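Assemble and predict.
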Amino acid sequence: MSYRHNLQLTADKKLRHFLTIQGLPRAVLCEILDTAETFSHVGQQAVKKVPILRGKTIVNLFFENSTRTRTTFELAAKRLSADVLNLNIAASATSKGESLLDTLRNLEAMQCDMFVVRHAQSGAAHFIAKHAPKHISVINAGDGRHAHPTQAMLDMFTIRRHYSDFYPLKVAIVGDVLHSRVARSEIHALTTLGVNEVRVIGPKTLIPTGIDSLGVHVFHDMAEGLQDVDVVIILRLQKERMEGAFLPSEQEYFHSYGLTAEKLKYAKPTAIVMHPGPINRGVEIDSSVADGSQSVILEQVTNGIAVRMAVMSMTMGQYTAAGGAA
Amino acid sequence: MKTLIKNGRVINPKTSFDEIADVVIAEGKVIAVGSIPDGFNAEQTIDATGQYVFPGIIDLSARLREPGFDYKATIASETQAAASAGITTLCCPPDTAPVIDSPAVVEMINHLAEQSGKARVVIIGALSKQLEGSQISEMSALKTAGVVGVGNGLRQIKNTLVMRRALEYASSHNLTVFLFSEDPWLRGNGSAHEGAISTRMGLEGVPEIAEVIAVARDLALIEQTGVRAHFCQLSTAKAKTKIARAQSEGLPVTVDVSAHQLHLTDMDIGDFDPMYHVRPPLRSIRDRDVLRQGIKENSVSVICSDHQPHDEDAKDGPFSVTEPGISGIDTLLPLTMRLVADGVLTLQEALASLTYKPAEILGLNLGTIELGATADLVVYDPNAFWTLTPETMQSAGKNSPFLGWEFDGKVTHTFLEGRLVYSHT
């Protein structure tokens, strides 16, 4: 088979696009976390800005609505002093490549420097990275079921703030892994950073075939799966899962897989509870846990800005910086 | 025209013939193999020293995109491409627009094919009206119009009762049924083989059981109705095993596999490259190896191109929203010969799967070089190195995952009923 070069890295291994965690070396992930650490103080300053991306234009290209994610990217860009353009392109299910390419050509004419892309189709960010002009960096803000790498990195950042080392940790990801881009990116990040064990917990209808090949252990029972874990990551359950015969009802899901204080007792007493948001209270997580002392859900939101600033500052202009060698 | 093909290595799998010999053609027929008849004066002589001479290839599944999709390809463009690739007979599935469910569409395609004159086009008529799977088609009328069989294209007849009746009716009219079996619910909106790769890429999977269950249903109906049936573009090891068992119990069913399934697997998709988006999806290495083995054992008897030429827009977009399909006419013979070079098949096995075996399935007296046979034949230089590029591809569709592959043999001449329809110079 022919060698395929990594679209995300320049010839000298600098991050040029941020499309997926898969295939990125540990050093790059650590660099993102370290850079994010240096940005985390910016939010506490009186003037919440650094001039790193002054004069640069970042386009938030959202083919799928997500006010929360878009807002954190916007805030991150503004704190780096970049100009931000928000484009919400109503993405019908039939949104075809044709219109995608047309949109790209139009944006090229506006001389932007970076695209932050969210799209309902897996591989859309790769497609855009391949077709955009070479000087533009692309950051994947979620594509289909494939990847959501900035969410995964902000979760890693949050974990690192609570634990000094990744090596001894046992992490459980609970819920709809099948449809979750967050879970896929988290699994790649956790295994690359070298945690002790990654588990996924959920009913067979929501656990994709062959997930074990990603280096995770599969559990269908919360009591077993949560045993002695240090981190519990709860995934959001979309309401449409009841329609596709994945689940009978929200109540039954909550009964089996919803995180309650009682079920949380199976984990280590020091365990932290995470959720990428937005939360469905009483479906995948009980309010008392979401708002409880072990929950770090709001920290995740705060950390999201620093991590996105890190990724934006690292990828911006890398192609040009490397002399176009990539 | 009286033609003499001199001194070539004549390979005729049907008679297990493989010798250096002269082939003599007159009035569209092979009139001698070996010795030149007394008094024969060739009007055209081709020196085939160092080259292979074998029967013209019969491709059991080639979408020519006409009528209905002539912005992708036309009968003229694809028959021309076929001739340059050593294919003399193309079998056209019914999913054109309009669907081939009436004699008028059959006549239209026949007319366009005759105008081109570069390859023989045979037609599979629709098994159900509009391929919608609710009413059976006018199979008697289609048969009179000259179809070689009936099928439902890539569409499924979901209703098992309708399927049973369609097969019973086809059997009554002694028509072979060409089946692409895939459970539509299990397939869903899948675009890649369900497994570790689709999970990793976040692509909705097409599980192997989508094929296994549909094949099991269809096998039961074939047994029940006694229809003569052929399974098209099989992709999974498990379905192959099921069919092989039925064959060994005496059920007269045959199978083809597309050439790309014998070379590529889901691991080749890489960074969502839409050229690898194909239906049925590229499966696992194990599936590929079992299908290769099937050809050796003859449970899978035919290799086809599953030719699906596309325009550029069809492949521009994120993987799963692009149109599935590979433009395969140019690579059918090269990929099959690659299996010989790789030691998977013997030359006889490889060429059998492209010539007399598909002819038998179609019930056509073609695919052989012997006395009195229709003079469809190919002269092939086994030592001509070339690379597949959009320029060297002759099909109007340039959608091939094999672009950049190097091949070490090339067709130099193609004869259709004794007429030279392609020559490399």
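Chain A has two domains: 26-148+303-321, 149-300.
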